[in-house]
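User: Could you write out the 3D structure of this protein bound to ribulose-5-phosphate? I've included everything you need below.
Assistant: Certainly. Input first, then the structure.
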Amino acid sequence: MSLPSQDQLKTMVGKAALHYVAPHEVIGVGTGSTVNQFIEALASVKDKIKGAVSTSSESTARLQALGIAVMDANEVNELSVYIDGADEIDHQGFMVKGGGAALTYEKIVAAQSRLFVCIADESKLVQTLGRFPLPVEVIPMATQRIIRQFQAMGGTSQVRLNKGMPLITDNGQHIIDVAGLQITNPMAFETCVSQWPGVVTVGVFAWQKAQVCLLGTAEGVKTLRF
Ligand code: 5RP
């Protein structure tokens, strides 16, 4: 029997996440190709939930196309669950996120949720964060200074481009991707970089870490709890 493809693993974890969707609730929905599989699966229970708080224009469009109400974060109180993917997750539930440029809204919705369920295929599981270039959303005026600050830590940064121009986030800002970091203390790292003037959001999710990871593997979906 052949091994499941990465897309099949994403579909498996997207479906498995339905287990955490309680009836009559508003849920938080992340962004990315794994979450797109979750949104597809959500169609089967869409009449049982009240709606969703979305983290990007792309997820909003997909949810609305299925007839799921998308609510403003300020219209609702605490969310029972937030379902999102990750670019990396370690064995403590700390993550790097932002490969889809939605990190700021993702961190806001994660902070508003009781439970963060990360859905990921097994290629995302790492010992130490830093293999994936770290996304950081920045105010454009501060870009070069922030790049120099990362350089002093051993990181090499690139401004993320879209059709040759700096990508503009849903938030109207830019993203730099920082390669070459070894993030051995994610909480201290997030606390430190978040305070640099001009940093909107750093893609380390340590204070908003996952409590559960549904990991798609060749042996099936494994549930990791942190
Ligand atoms: C978007 C994210 C995504 O969760 C992350 O990039 C993973 O995406 P994918 O499921 O496509 O691999 O943080 O900002």
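The first strand starts at residue 26 and ends at 29.
User: Perfect, thank you.
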